[in-house]
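seq as requested:
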Amino acid sequence: MALSGLDIYKLLPKTNCRDCGFPTCLAFALALAKRTVSLEKCIHVTEEAKKALDASALPPIRLVRIGPENAKHDAGNETVMFRHEEKFHHPTLIGFIIPDNLDDNEIKKRLNSINALEFERIGQLLKPQLIAVKQTKDAGRFVQTVKLILQNCPELGIVLMSIDAQALKEALLILTGKSPVIYAADSQNISQLAALAKEHGASLTVKASTLDELSQLTKKANETGLNDIIIDVDTKNNKARAIFSLTQIRRQALKKANRSLGYPTITVLNNTDQYDEIIEAGDYIAKYTGIILLNSCQPYAALALLTLRQNIYTDPQKPLQIEPKLYQIGNTDEKSPVLITTNFSLTYYTVLGEVEASKKPSNIISVDTEGMSVLTAWAAEKFTPDKITESLKKCGIEEKVSHRNLIIPGYVAVLSGELEEASGWKIIVGPKEAAGLPAFLKNLS
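struct tokens:
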């Protein structure tokens, strides 16, 4: 847990020597707490104080990076228990398990399905990040499966689900620079697998039946010099118990500054019913898994979980926005209609969908309203005649159409007179709801 300015002050020499450039040690301590200055500025601080301050500067939950250098996937480094306190930083990494007892054709088929799991929703591209290779046969087949996955899914992070040291070593050699994950070490093999992970730049998952045992395992891994650790939470026996463990691990790290549990978590689903698996996965994404591995890679399952993840990990203090500019939908010409809306992603994509459904090429201008919807922006004076007029001039629409007819949302019909006077455009009041746009545009003369 980060120290306050007063906590830091207690660790400083308190001489007010000004060698750091600040008038007092307290002023320097307050700057350190805000992280606007480094401790190196104080040349009189003791080694003991340095260690304490360096430890306090570490994030409560370590950031672990998985995958190739050009496509790193982050887990951990969360700072709050509840989203409304600030925001959640790194969306849960979603991956799929592929056992090595499948033949090559079936594996390639599944990999193609996973590669196709890309969905665009309100301007963001949603897709999974990981593939887990589960060893069920000999080391040779395991390594062959890893090679197959690496060839077909080069941008996805790889989880090696094996405790066979020889198989892991061979797989890690072909994954050099890919930052894979080893799953999973227990009290019997923690030293061996931790050393292997450290040697090959991999992260190590640890698993145990209690939080105390997990804490001991992370400490043993740290003794080998390994810091990139992931904590496995058992989901086999009881979902409620798993959620309790996920919550307690997060609470221990954030509220109790328990460094031995300050690592991202992983949950591996064992549910044989694919519908129950989706529901269970959704519970773990909400509370609070950093990585989740599933057996089913059906598109409907992936879309449901990716959408849930997007909603949870959206910054509650910053609405999703699109770039405020002119969007030309379809093969527009000089006679195509012009519609105005805000740059709130959900509003824009709702309007876009209905315009596309009308099959009438149209121009949509999004006004910078700081991500507010139409009525909210109007009430906050972000969607005003002056703002709309400014957008009309900036976006270049006047050079693209021969008419001067502007369609505004029906909910802000009150703007018509003032907007017409400010912009010089003829204002046409459109439907209140976007669902009315297809019929409205078809009937527009």
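Residues 326-442 form a domain with the Rossmann fold fold (CATH 3.40.50.11600).
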